[in-house]
């Protein structure tokens, strides 16, 4: 298959003519507003597009995608711009920037939330909360709706409502040949299967409709502990207890408690701390009762309070403008306290050797996976990561471009430590087409969560035994591989 090419000045002129009847803008590097289109949450993910399309309609996107496909032009799609792997950027190709398509419409009677493709979860949370509703969104609300949804989507409501894709009712998508499709379980069911987990490979998602739920009040916040070994052991043991399934198959929080453990160095002092992040659907009294073993471990700071879900989902926002990378990892409960302490040694050395990387985070996300595993199996959508294992992320933050290679290599090295820990626990990390957890989350190879940019992982490692079917559908809907940025799927020959 021929490699994609850059867009030329002649292409831009032709595309402007084709789009003259629409309100879309085509911006060249010298045009006002172009620099905003290539700006990313991580400056390390930015690339100089040859031209940027800023559409306001699916029709404009259809014209542009059809043209780019016919000419073999490289295409990238920017929703929230939160990808740290550069998957929403193109070096010299055509960038489709959806930032002017962020409308959110809520229908309380049907409890549905309809969202344009350029919206962020913050847009969704705010508008839905105004109507007393919420839906499963990202663990950070400044991420884009499109990227998270098309990759599966874990969030702080997953313990009670499943994944984002479990709440997806329908999607409007522009395919590689310019066709605009409304996709759901009855219209284009094969494509609906594929886009729920591998959607970035099949088109530009211009609109989503999600199932809404009554917006919960949450006991939420951060609890900080010093990196003292005996305290860390108490915290890890207590956290394990909260997320271990009992004889009834339930955790102590019954799916209503989600959160995480993280090594952080918060400003202004940048002293290392073990952070416990809490998101509990319930009252303060209920929350304190469940969290008592952690609260008794000797925190140096706590800001737990009652908040709406929309407010709770703002806790982990990070400012745009620095350089960041993400390396997804997986782990199992119980989390070994000695392993947490071993990672701290590596974390402390890295952030000491590169002081500008003090904002770096290692995080273990904790949840009750019962709902996620029970809703569907790993063969019921393109997403292949349902199981009893947990997701984690190694996320270096830095400022100097010259440190890019060192920071990314450190993230790789830490991911290898997590992989070794899985093997130590007798769990085989996912590899190849035969990988993947069982159809209902039974033990097998643990797959990695693709939304945490695995810039070294291969597509077969993300999609597991779903990969052959995805290849068939790719050959049908995108045979020339127009959409090839994140975990590209080779069309079946």
TrEMBL record:
Residues 44-215 form the FAD-binding PCMH-type domain. The keyword DNA damage does not apply. One of its GO terms (molecular function) is oxidoreductase activity. The keyword Flavoprotein applies. Keywords: FAD, Flavoprotein, Oxidoreductase. InterPro entries: BBE (IPR012951), FAD-bd_PCMH (IPR016166), FAD-bd_PCMH-like_sf (IPR036318), FAD-bd_PCMH_sub1 (IPR016167), FAD-bd_PCMH_sub2 (IPR016169), FAD-linked_Oxidoreductase (IPR050416), Oxid_FAD_bind_N (IPR006094). Its cofactor is FAD. It holds the Pfam family FAD_binding_4. PANTHER family: BINDING OXIDOREDUCTASE, PUTATIVE (AFU_ORTHOLOGUE AFUA_1G17690)-RELATED (PTHR42973), FAD-BINDING PCMH-TYPE DOMAIN-CONTAINING PROTEIN (PTHR42973:SF39). Belongs to the oxygen-dependent FAD-linked oxidoreductase family. This is FAD binding domain-containing protein. It comes from Patellaria atrata CBS 101060. The lineage of its organism: Eukaryota, Fungi, Dikarya, Ascomycota, Pezizomycotina.
